[in-house]
C-alpha cells in the first residue's frame, strides 16, 4: 500500500468509488489511489504534515515542499518566493494575556495568512510564533505586495478578550529563487531569515527584502507601496 500523490489531498476531497464492495474504498482524483485503507491513511498522512494548533502545514512538509518547488523553478523558469513571518513582541502577549490567548493569536495569524495567499501557495508554521509561506511562480515584486497586505491585515485586526481588546503586529522577510540562480533550499531560507532579522532590528511591523535589483535593499512603504498595489490589484484569486 503506497501513497503516490506528491501533494496532500484532504480526505474531504475523496470520492467514494465503490459502495458495492461494502468496504471503505476511496478513489483519489489526484493520484488515482485505490485502497481499502486509503481514507485512514490519508487522514494519518494529513496529521503527520499538519500543525495541530493552526491547521497550517508543519516544518516537515515545508522542507520537502521547498525542495520540490525549487526543482520546479529550474524546470519551468518561474521564480519561487519565500515569505517568513514573525509576530512582534509575542512573548508580551503570553505574559500579559496568557498562553491560551497567545494560541488564539497564532490561529488568527494563520487564518490571515490563508486569506491573503493563494490556494497553491504553501502556508506553514515554522515553529513558535514564526510562519513561512512558499509562493510558487511568484516574483519578489508580487511577493512583496502579498506580504504588505498581510502585514496590514495583522496590524488592523483586533484581538478581543472579554471586554478588552488589543492588537499585534508582524515583521516579514522575503527571498526569491530565480531559475538561473544556484543555491540550496537552506540558502533561500537563510536569506528570508536575514531579511526578517533586518525587519525586526530596524523597527518591526514591516516587510524587508533585498531589492528588485541585486544588492539593493528595500522596505515597502509610502509611494512605493501604493504603486505596487496599483500594479497588482488583480493578483488576488
Ligand atoms: N501561546 C503560545 N506561545 C508560544 C507558542 N510557541 C512559542 N510561543 C512563545 O512565543 C514567544 C516568543 O518570544 P520571543 O522569541 O522572545 O520573541 P518575541 O517576544 O515575539 O520578540 P520579537 O520576535 O523580537 O519581536 C515565547 O514567549 C514562546 O513561549 C505557542 O504554541 N503558543
TrEMBL record:
This is diguanylate cyclase. It is an enzyme of class 2 (transferase). GO terms for cellular component: plasma membrane. GO terms for molecular function: diguanylate cyclase activity. Residues 78-212 form the GGDEF domain. It comes from Oleispira antarctica RB-8. One of its GO terms (biological process) is cell adhesion involved in single-species biofilm formation. Its EC number is 2.7.7.65. Pfam families: GGDEF. Its cofactor is Mg(2+). It catalyses: 2 GTP = 3',3'-c-di-GMP + 2 diphosphate.
Amino acid at each position: 500500500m503506497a501513497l503516490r500523490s506528491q501533494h496532500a489531498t484532504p480526505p474531504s476531497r475523496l470520492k467514494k468509488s465503490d459502495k458495492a464492495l461494502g468496504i471503505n474504498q476511496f478513489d483519489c482524483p489526484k493520484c488515482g489511489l485505490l485502497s481499502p485503507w486509503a481514507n485512514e491513511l490519508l487522514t494519518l498522512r494529513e496529521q503527520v504534515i499538519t500543525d495541530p494548533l493552526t491547521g497550517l502545514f508543519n516544518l516537515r512538509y515545508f522542507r520537502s515542499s521547498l525542495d520540490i518547488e525549487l526543482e520546479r523553478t529550474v524546470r519551468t523558469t518561474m521564480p519561487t518566493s519565500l515569505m517568513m513571518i514573525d509576530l512582534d513582541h509575542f512573548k508580551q502577549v503570553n505574559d500579559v494575556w496568557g498562553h491560551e490567548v497567545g494560541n488564539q493569536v497564532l490561529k488568527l495569524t494563520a487564518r490571515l495568512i490563508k486569506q491573503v495567499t493563494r490556494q497553491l501557495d504553501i502556508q506553514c508554521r515554522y515553529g513558535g510564533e514564526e510562519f513561512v509561506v512558499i509562493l510558487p511562480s511568484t516574483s519578489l515584486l508580487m511577493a512583496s505586495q502579498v506580504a504588505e497586505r498581510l502585514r496590514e491585515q495583522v496590524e488592523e485586526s483586533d484581538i478581543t478578550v472579554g471586554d478588552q481588546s488589543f492588537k499585534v503586529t508582524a515583521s516579514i522577510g522575503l527571498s526569491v529563487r530565480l531559475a538561473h540562480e544556484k543555491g540550496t533550499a537552506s540558502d533561500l531560507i537563510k536569506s528570508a531569515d536575514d531579511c526578517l532579522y533586518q525587519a525586526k532590528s530596524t523597527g518591526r511591523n514591516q516587510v524587508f527584502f533585498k531589492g528588485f535589483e541585486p544588492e539593493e535593499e528595500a522596505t515597502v512603504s509610502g509611494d512605493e507601496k501604493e504603486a505596487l498595489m496599483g500594479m497588482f490589484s488583480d493578483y488576488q484569486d
